[in-house]
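Complex 400.
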Amino acid sequence: MAVASQAQHLSKQCFSDVCYQLNIPQQTAKSGSGDIFFQISGPTSYSWIGLGQGSQMAGSNIFVVYTDGKDNVTLSPRRGTGHVEPEHDRSANVTLLEGSGISNGRMVANVLCTNCVKWQGGSTDFSGNSGDWIYASRPGDALDSTSVSEELEQHEANGSFTWDYVKAQGGSSGNPFIAAPQGSPSHTGMSSTPTVSSGTGNSGAESNTVEASSDSASSSDMTATAHGSLAAVTFLVLFPVGAALVRIPGIGVWIHAGFQIFSYCCFIAAAGMGIWLAMTENLLDHVHSIIGMVLLGVLFIQPLGGVLHHRAYEVKQSRTIVSYIHIWLGRLAILLGMINGGLGIQLRGDVKHGYIIAYSVVAGVMGVLFLAVIAFGEVQASRRPKTDVRGDVKQDKSPL
Ligand code: HEM
Ligand code: HEM
Ligand code: HEM
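Predicted structure with protoporphyrin IX containing FE bound:
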């Protein structure tokens, strides 16, 4: 009898032939925090199988299972940082329990987690009705590694689901998977089953909400594409062209000023989207976001520097310290922005090959042209007689 009642407290989800089970012991269900048990199982034809707490990779508490090459499994807790390989998380408090291992062509990890209520990037309430989880798997050669930070290849299947906590709540704080052999998918009968069998007695919670995240994923996908495209156009085309304008004889300095301020407005729009993405995906501390925000701050002072330079130039007819700050800060910021676009593409991870090539080619060409503009600017400045007034300044009788 004890076995049967224990089994009722396992909530199970299967995606194809990979299954996950969860038990929230009575004590944890009451207080909302404490120990939980979960099981990850799937055929050994998978290179790895993963389960995570959260609604997307970024900020989630991930557990990856693979064969260890010694007839057992390795459980690797990881921290999701974005669409890149999750890194090993030392702070996770997880233990592989009895019943874990490889049998009948399936790897099984029975896991006790004592700090799954809160992790870097999120938290859950185990006394609630449900929680957000993600899963992923990669078919392929066995990893056969005991290293918890073994390099993983990207998944072929992934998704998110809402786990019904009500079905999982209850039971003592003992290993529920050896007490409920009928509920475990680590049996011969399960190994060839393509989807969950409702005959296991506790699989009623199966994947009815798997597609739930696709809407929000696509809106953030669209924002990421809009952000990337606008930021790329701004740094690969607008800012360099605006800088080159100041070198073209006959073009007034105010054309440069107006053009660059317009470019900066485009950057504000792109950065707004970038900051929103970084906040929702927990990526504010990523190097791409940090460089982007530094650029936003640095370029903010450029118009002021430009005006101060222009005023001083009219009086002194030569560059002053403010000129060098305006010129070199502007040049370096534009070059750094071009490089930062590459880091953004890397961060996004799933960018189409054609787009990466297009970005690299345009960045390469514009980068070289921009360096030529810089060189030309320096030659022009060195040849300028001290008393000579730049064409644009001469023409411009503004009170600045
Ligand atoms: C080498 C390791 C990994 C890489 C390079 C990687 C990369 C990516 C990329 C590029 C995407 C977006 C495209 C797509 O949907 O396929 C993505 C999405 C996703 N990945 Fe991963 N991933 C890795 C590991 C994992 C692991 C271990 C999990 C475990 C649960 C996971 C769960 C997900 C989920 C649920 C999504 C869709 C939701 C989201 O946008 O975050 N990934 N991953
Ligand atoms: C405030 C500054 C910025 C922030 C907070 C920011 C944030 C982000 C984030 C979070 C992503 C990943 C989106 C995802 O994985 O869904 C991203 C992607 C990207 N970012 Fe930024 N970014 C900033 C500035 C820039 C700048 C200066 C560039 C320069 C070109 C840039 C170009 C890109 C590109 C090309 C992508 C790839 C998007 C795609 O291809 O769809 N970002 N950015
Ligand atoms: C966000 C706004 C701005 C950015 C990013 C920017 C950027 C730049 C850059 C990169 C250069 C050097 C071009 C080269 O490589 O040779 C430059 C030069 C210059 N900028 Fe700006 N600028 C901005 C706004 C302004 C404004 C508002 C003025 C005001 C009048 C101004 C006046 C000048 C002048 C006069 C030069 C030529 C300096 C010289 O060669 O002696 N800029 N700017």
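Confidence is low (pLDDT under 50) at residues 1-7, 180-218, 387-400.
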